[in-house]
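dude i think i finally got it to work??
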Amino acid sequence: MAEDFGKELMMLGGTIAGFIATLLTVLEKLLDFQHRIRARHEDKGPARPERASAPTASTIDFFSSKPLRGSSYLLLYETGVIVAAGVLLNYVGLTLSRHMESILFLDMTGTALVAFLLGPWWGAMVALLSNSVVNWLLYPEVGADVVIFPWSLVNMTGALFWGVLARQPGFQKYVRTSKSSVLAHTWFLLSFGVVGAVVMSIPGTLVQAALNERTTFALNPDVAESLSARVTQWETTVRVSLESILGVQWGESLSWAVVNWFQNCVRYIPDKTMSAAIALVVLKYGYPLFEQELIHGGPEGERPSDERMLPLVLGLLYAPSYATLISSDGYAGMVYWPLWSLPWVFIVIGYLTLRYWGQPEDAMQEARHQRAERYARALKPIGKEPSYEFCRRLTFVTLVASLIFALCLPILLMDFYRVTFKFFCVVYGFLLVVHLIRVAIAQNISVARAE
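look at this
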């Protein structure tokens, strides 16, 4: 009953979010219409040479030029597109994996994309949203939160690892080179895939210990039986060696952890390697403007830095999952609470680091404003083309129609929250895909014309 009530509240929140998203979209269109009318009046009025050098109000989008104070990224041009693409890629990867019964999960492809472009903290937030919100809503069984929430530690670890590694000069040099050698591609797959799998398998093994699970492989029965016997032999050998050094209790626990960690490494390597590779392909072919601005740093060659509020936002998103895990009967006590509390250590360290050694707020605001101007100059000519304008107006009308339909659902249906939530998932899911494709095409056309 409590689980159903929690999901009903989540669906109500999703419905409210859908209404807010629709209203914001309508507001954006009204502001754009106001800017157009103002620009037409200015064109009809007398010429004013002294204002020729000043940017007009319609040059930069309202939501992009004036986001939350202290933010280093543009709300509409950058975070809105990239975060939506990340969550969608994670959802698509997990859905395909479940329906095709693949050995690959691919539920961190979008996390890798966001970590590459926006850094470790935004990547961790997308990982947490995908795992603790989207996967939880899609998981039909009772007690899904207790089963799913622990794996957010693995996803956040991967986001932090990929985000930090993508900030290194070696990654920038690798992405910038159009004709990378086989050695460079091997370095990328090894560092982001193999080493990433080794790192992520550590929290994965700890989560398995909390869930009382063992690593399993979808193998031929004969091969699985032979491998199981070999693993048991390895675990016995490791346990005997560790018991002679650390004692019986610690030796048994560590031997189980070492053997399962090794098996997790083997299982994670293909999944994390393919996830990072697919994310980089989407980045290179889908969003070249983001690559220029967010990875190479634009004309100045300086990548946007993280703002100090990001670790706090991550902590705010992690708090519900943490409260669920720390209060669960199966995880409570002195055994597992340090594992669930470990993200808070990174959150506090990240906040203090950005608080005292981060980029000043004025510098972030100036860099953000310059990127907004470059985006506007690059994408504004594309937005004036008839096909682009047609799709944008059709999307706007569809959003208004969906809002009207949703307002009528309480009158027509009994199970309003669930049906409305699914209605918005379907409508906004298709429109989100169309929007992301439209942004990708516009960026590729803009880069091609510039070259």
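The radius of gyration is 25 Å.
im so relieved honestly
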